């Protein structure tokens, strides 16, 4: 059983919001913006890979950070980076 202080200090999972028509999701963790989007084949079918992008404040554009299989693994990777 957690004490009240442990409960308050426990890290909460980031809230993801829809960011585009093809299933892109976006979150902000610790002041950094992250976006996850599906990789599509030439016939617009999902391949199972997800691209992770971080927001670059200087160039005001998304910068590729990682490619992983599975949305759950991609979300966990983003949570570990912050």
> What is the overall pLDDT average?
90
Strand order of the largest sheet: 1-2-3-4-5
- The helix content, as a percent range, equals 10-25%
Task: Tell me the span between the first and last alpha carbons.
Answer: 27 Å
User: H/E series, N to C?
Assistant: HEEEEEH
**Major sheet attributes:** 5 strands, antiparallel
- How large is the radius of gyration? 15 Å
Sheet-strand content, in percent, reads 35-45%
Low-pLDDT parts are none
Instruction: Specify the number of helices.
Output: 2
If you had to describe this structure to a student in words, what would you say it looks like?
This protein has a domain at 17-72. It contains 2 helices and 5 strands; from the N terminus they run H-E-E-E-E-E-H. It has helices at residues 4-9, 71-81, and strands at 17-18, 25-29, 32-40, 46-56, 61-69. The chain has a 5-stranded antiparallel beta sheet with strand order 1-2-3-4-5, with helices on one face. A hairpin with a 5-residue loop joins strand 3 and strand 4. The longest helix has 11 residues, at 71-81. The radius of gyration is 15 Å and the shape is globular. The relative contact order is 0.18.
């Amino acid at each position: 059983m957690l004490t009240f202080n442990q409960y308050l200090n426990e890290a909460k999972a980031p809230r993801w919001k829809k960011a585009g028509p093809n299933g892109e999701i976006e979150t902000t963790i610790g002041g950094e913006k992250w976006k996850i989007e599906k990789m599509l084949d030439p016939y617009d079918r999902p391949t199972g890979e997800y691209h992770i992008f971080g927001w670059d404040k200087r160039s005001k554009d998304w910068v590729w950070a990682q490619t992983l299989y599975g949305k759950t693994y991609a979300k966990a990777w983003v949570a570990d980076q912050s």
